Write a sequence for this structure.
């Protein structure tokens, strides 16, 4: 009790305030790491639990290590640690995001290493502050009570600010930089206030200002950094990105090349999509001058419709695409509507947002041509859209002389898948005419033209303007050189889903 | 859509509230509907509720009592034979064990099963089943041939089944990985043995095991298997592999509602060797299914019975005199007496025993001859999206957890052909209360709270996905409680003289129900319904 009379009852207010700030920053880094990893890796319960666990454990390690700091160096170390925490913590979100964009493999390792390092440093902060205060003769009971009160108050402040204000308004990267700057500010402030007790004030001041400037630069530039990161993911600058209930659509541009990625897979490149869409549409329609009505399944970008509309004999095109966000984007965005020539606004076109499988099942409309431009059969759900029953169903939607064109993956990269689609169409009663075309951004790509009656011959000339197709090109498209010869494969039935297995094996063999 | 706004919209409740015998409550924000079809009506009969006196009276040629598969088949056959003087009294639950339901989800109505959910490829002997399937387009060609061609839409789409074993999901229901070489040898031997039995014939020239069961060989050397519990037979035959035992116990609970220690060896083998149906376009052992289980087949049968020949209501009391059969019924308008020349009693035998007071005169003593009956829960979970699955073992139609008391779950949206995964789905979890005696199970069910039923029915889903994930996705649960779900072929059931007596009935009152076969499957119900109709036509 004799202490009480000799030591001041109230500890230094400034240091107590710094406890509040330091505690806020510490929790902020933990929340940023948890939120970022949940966002990038999913499974938020696992991510948050493991990051909080790792962080708390590291804080324990830091507390333990703090005892090795010499009593005389306590303030100086506290300042050094603040600067280091500010630097690492401030950069953590941006570093992790960039890292995830460019190389995903060491992401978890770096994540936990960063969280651990931050935890150790933050774990040293409070013991050091308490020792500073203790050295400054604060009463111990008062000291512990004040320090921990402000520690927990700081945590409360950030736990509320982070989800409500910081994460939504600033984003994770900038929130990181902001808290890094706050740490650096505490360091600079402490440095100024206790200059007399600290060795090498000038060197520390320089370092502090450097860190502060660097983090401020980061805060300003973080938008740019994020864009770099997405460019790392997609190769080019992202000009539009949206997540719909069905898919993530990302548009990128590099010079005059606009590209659409769906769920990270390239859908088209504006430089060569004309090859794909001319090949998809014209070999069939050129040979059907009597065709009046066309059904397009998938193809919400309107590019296939653009090609179909070149045929004046086609009176009506029905486009059935799942995602209203996709067809809306390609209808309303002027730049994208320029790509498809405004096809989705054309009075000859009806756009329906429905599930193609369900729509075919529930309607009875009959068409002269059906264009099935579905995503590749990479899972069991999509595999059903390439099965015997769905082709039989499509046959019921075709006029007697009608034809069906099916996007059929790559006969070069996925030969078993390609020939399986061919076999499936034949099993469903179609006469098939497989062909392929070289689309630089995709590689060698394949299609199947299926007719209800025999007797199709590829066109030898085109009556509409084309950029890619002519008689000679078309003749070669329907020829398969020896290294792309048909393979003996089974048809795709719903109860075996052979195609999905072929597709897995085929792409498993492609080293990309 | 948030569960809260979903509940506000009252969508989840809509479908279920229309059903009679429903309890509606809420557990941790999830609306749960408990559906106990026929329970109130059945217990009133059991408790000897006084019979109403009648003023209304109608006459008909043939009365069919019950709208399960047996009753529907009888009505379908009569209509097909040109008989127009019959009346089908639907009973307390339309379609019985083949019933299905619909629940509104934010993305549209989804169909789900309330009972049986699949049909194996029918045997050659199941000719009426094949006729029904052909008529409904499920068999596309060659309905009476060795290998008919089946509609692919109805064959279970791949991936058909997976098993959670040793910490991860595997293809198929019998473990092949992570079992010792010795166990694998036993698995092989067992499958070879039952494959050989499928075609084997007894001394009378009949197949040893056949669906319908009544056409199986009477060879006493094989009938002896009826006296032994299946598990004892397995051990005596040198099958000791723990994983094989777990699998076969699952099979028995799934098929008969009781474990391998409760059902007879004859029944255990019959499951594997009895059907032997084949298809031109599917491997042996393929299954047929629909989003709402077997309900589409029941609807197809009902659609061929003129509406005027069907009546909502239930039979309370059946008597015979020299003119015919008198059936005291109750319908929406009150009591009603049906006077029929003949009647087909197409209801479960525990109900028939209450409604037909003179059933002993047929040689059937309920106290001695009533088959043991298993209790089941069929729980439908309406989910917002799909829980995460491992990339190498995607969700299958049938998902089973090795060694669980539950029977896994089937995915009601599995057979849909869609460009995108449905935004909502229904998982149907099955649970036979096989760990208790039938009487104990029914006592427990009578007193169980909704959350207890939910915990029991959802145990497999909890184990697979975690309680939090399941709770987060569940928009509504509909639990169908079937206290007397099915007859169980316990040892001695094959020789049950009471069942044999009812099968032989040829007077004014006939019996038609799968109970006559001692176990509950679609094919047996069709067999007896068809046979009874042919007898009266």
């Amino acid at each position: 009790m004799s202490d009480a009379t000799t030591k001041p009852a109230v500890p230094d207010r400034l240091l107590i305030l710094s406890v509040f700030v330091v505690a806020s920053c510490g929790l902020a880094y933990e929340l940023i790491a948890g939120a970022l990893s949940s966002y990038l890796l999913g499974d938020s319960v696992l991510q948050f639990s493991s990051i909080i666990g790792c962080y708390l454990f590291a804080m324990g390690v830091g507390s333990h290590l703090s005892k090795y700091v010499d009593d005389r160096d306590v303030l100086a170390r506290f300042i050094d640690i603040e600067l280091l925490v500010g630097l690492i913590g401030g950069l953590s979100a941006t570093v992790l995001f960039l890292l995830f964009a460019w190389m995903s493999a060491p992401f978890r390792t770096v994540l936990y290493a960063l969280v651990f390092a931050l935890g150790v440093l933050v774990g040293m902060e409070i013991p050091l502050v308490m020792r500073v205060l203790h050295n400054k003769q604060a009463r111990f009971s008062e000291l512990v009570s004040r320090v921990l009160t402000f520690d927990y108050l700081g945590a409360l402040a950030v736990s509320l600010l982070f989800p409500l204000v910081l994460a939504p308004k600033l984003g994770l990267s900038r929130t990181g930089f902001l808290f890094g700057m706050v740490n650096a500010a505490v360091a600079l402030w402490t440095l100024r206030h206790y200059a007399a007790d600290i060795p090498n004030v000038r060197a520390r001041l320089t370092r502090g200002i450097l860190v502060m400037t660097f983090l401020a630069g980061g805060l300003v530039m973080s938008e740019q950094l994020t864009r770099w990161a997405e460019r790392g993911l997609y190769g080019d600058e992202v000009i539009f990105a949206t997540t719909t209930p069905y898919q993530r659509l990302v548009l990128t541009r590099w010079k005059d090349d606009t590209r659409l990625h769906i769920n990270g897979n390239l859908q088209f490149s504006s430089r060569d999509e004309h090859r794909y869409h001319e090949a998809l549409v014209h070999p069939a329609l050129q040979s059907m001058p009597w065709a009046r009505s066309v059904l397009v399944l998938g193809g919400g970008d309107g590019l296939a419709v653009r090609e179909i509309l070149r045929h004046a004999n086609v009176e009506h095109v029905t486009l059935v695409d799942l995602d209203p966000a996709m067809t809306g984007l390609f209808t309303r965005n002027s730049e994208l509507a320029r790509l498809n020539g405004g096809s989705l606004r054309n009075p000859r076109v009806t756009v329906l947002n429905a599930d193609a499988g369900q729509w075919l099942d529930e309607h009875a409309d009959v068409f002269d041509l059906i264009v099935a431009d579905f995503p590749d059969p990479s899972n069991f759900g999509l595999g059903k859209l390439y099965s015997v029953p769905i082709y039989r169903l499509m046959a019921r939607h075709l006029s007697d002389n009608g034809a069906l064109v099916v996007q059929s993956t790559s006969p070069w990269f996925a030969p078993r898948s390609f020939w399986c689609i061919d076999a499936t169409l034949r099993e469903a009663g179609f006469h098939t005419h497989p062909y392929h075309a070289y689309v630089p951004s995709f590689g060698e790509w394949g299609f199947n033209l299926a007719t209800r009656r025999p007797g199709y011959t590829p066109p030898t000339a085109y009556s509409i303007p084309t950029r890619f197709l002519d008689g000679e090109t078309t003749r070669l498209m329907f020829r398969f050189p020896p290294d792309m010869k048909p393979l003996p494969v089974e048809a795709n039935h719903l109860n075996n889903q052979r195609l999905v297995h072929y597709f897995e094996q085929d792409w498993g063999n492609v080293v990309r | 859509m948030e569960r809260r706004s979903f509940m506000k919209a009252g969508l989840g409740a809509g479908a279920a509230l229309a059903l009679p015998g429903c309890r509606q409550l809420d557990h941790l924000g999830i609306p749960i509907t408990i559906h106990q079809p026929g329970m109130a009506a059945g217990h009133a009969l059991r408790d000897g509720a006084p019979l109403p006196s009648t003023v209304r009276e109608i006459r008909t040629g043939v009365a069919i009592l019950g709208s399960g598969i047996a009753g529907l088949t009888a009505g379908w056959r009569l209509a097909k034979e040109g008989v127009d003087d019959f009346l089908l009294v639907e009973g307390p639950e339309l379609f019985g064990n083949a019933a299905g339901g619909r629940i509104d989800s934010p993305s549209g109505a989804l169909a789900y099963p309330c009972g049986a959910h699949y049909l194996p490829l029918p045997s050659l002997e199941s000719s009426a089943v094949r006729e029904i399937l052909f008529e409904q387009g499920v068999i596309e060609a060659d309905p009476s041939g060795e290998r008919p061609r089946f509609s692919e839409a109805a064959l279970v789409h791949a991936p058909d089944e997976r098993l959670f074993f040793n910490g991860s999901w595997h293809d198929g229901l019998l473990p092949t990985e992570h079992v010792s070489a010795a166990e694998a040898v036993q698995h092989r031997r067992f499958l070879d043995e039952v494959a050989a039995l499928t075609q084997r014939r007894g001394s009378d020239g009949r197949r040893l095991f056949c669906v319908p069961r009544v056409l199986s060989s009477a060879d006493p050397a094989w009938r002896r298997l009826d006296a032994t519990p299946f598990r004892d037979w397995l051990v005596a035959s040198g099958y000791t592999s723990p994983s094989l035992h777990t699998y076969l116990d699952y099979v028995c609970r799934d098929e008969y509602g009781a474990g391998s220690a409760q059902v007879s060896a004859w029944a255990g083998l019959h499951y594997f060797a009895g059907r032997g149906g084949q298809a031109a376009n599917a491997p042996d052992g393929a299954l047929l299914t629909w989003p709402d289980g077997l309900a589409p087949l029941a609807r197809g049968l009902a659609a061929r019975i003129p509406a005027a020949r069907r009546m909502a209501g239930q039979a309370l009391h059946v008597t015979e005199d020299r003119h015919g059969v008198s059936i005291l019924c109750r319908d929406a308008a009150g009591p009603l007496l049906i006077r029929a020349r003949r009647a087909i009693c197409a209801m479960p035998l525990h109900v028939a025993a209450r409604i037909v007071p003179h059933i002993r005169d047929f040689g059937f003593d309920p106290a001695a001859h009533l088959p043991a009956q298993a209790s089941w829960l069929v729980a439908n979970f309406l989910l917002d999206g799909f829980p995460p699955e491992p990339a190498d073992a995607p969700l299958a139609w049938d998902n089973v957890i090795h060694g669980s008391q539950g029977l896994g779950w089937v995915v009601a949206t599995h057979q849909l052909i869609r460009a995108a995964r449905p935004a909502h789905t229904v998982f149907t979890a099955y649970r036979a209360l096989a760990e208790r005696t039938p009487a104990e199970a029914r006592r427990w069910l009578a007193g169980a709270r909704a959350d207890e039923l939910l915990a029991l029915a959802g145990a497999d889903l909890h184990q697979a996905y975690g309680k939090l994930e399941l709770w987060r996705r569940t928009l509504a649960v509909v639990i169908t409680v079937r206290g007397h779900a099915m007859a169980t072929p316990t040892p001695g059931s094959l020789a049950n003289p009471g069942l044999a007596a009812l099968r032989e009935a040829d007077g004014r009152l006939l019996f038609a129900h799968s109970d006559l076969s001692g176990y509950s499957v679609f094919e047996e119900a069709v067999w007896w319904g068809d046979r009874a109709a042919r007898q009266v036509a």
Confidence is low (pLDDT under 50) at residues 1-11 of chain A. The longest helix of chain A spans residues 140-193. Chain A has 17 helices and eleven strands.
